[in-house]
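Figure 2 data, in text form.
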Amino acid sequence: MNPNQFKSRFLRRVGNWEPFEQLLDLLPDVAFFMKDRQGRFVMQNRRSLEYSQVVRESQVIGKTDRDFWSPDRAEEYVTGDRQVMATGVPIINAIGPAPEIAGSNRLIVYSKVPVRDRRGRVIGIAGTHREVADRRAAPEKFGQLSRAVQRLREQFAEPLSTPQLAAMAGLSRSQFERVFRRLFGTPPMDYLVRVRVNAACRSLENTDRKCADIALECGFYDHSHFSRAFQHLLGLSPQAYRRRHQPQTKRPAQLGRSARRVGAKRVSRSK
């Protein structure tokens, strides 16, 4: 029997998922969550509820990150969600700020995967995270890397090199690269590019700045380097991303300007 068919056939017979939710609650250091396409929480385990500072799951269902965290922190989480839903590509073992009050410098290792319906359409995301600095929840090497990773995340626009980061972690370059790749699933410089692209996504969504300016502000050499990295990670150009995620409130004004330009041309011709 085909193993995948055997698995799918059995799972279709499962009528009650409550036992699985109970198991998720028993994970002491791992937070689990699920959201729909609008970013509304559908499920959280006990550890995730602790981060949200609530007691019952019903207190988070239907709410979003913006109901619990500062605008900047919530926006970072939402950006990752949109990336996974837009591309269908999971984020595995990435590092981000813990879901806590603004100013907290604790880091988490998180993963996000797309949630699909029976037709294969992406209808949301599911994810897990655990603290980096907590030695009970992560390998000892995480503690050595936390300072270097925090520098990478906070000063991503500056010229950073693997030897610099390795020195901050108290490791040789080869040790740092090996441990970083094993724990986070990607080389340090590749992760730096992803952090820069994520920052660029926020600027593309929330500002009207030129792509070339955003590229330089986020640490890319030039617009060409930025476009190649963006296309490689997200599967679309920065301009296409901006059009897709442009706030609805901007569109009527843009349409109005277009209409005025067309009207001006018509008046000019009539004269």
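Caption note: The beta strands are 31-36, 41-44, 91-97, 107-116, 122-131.
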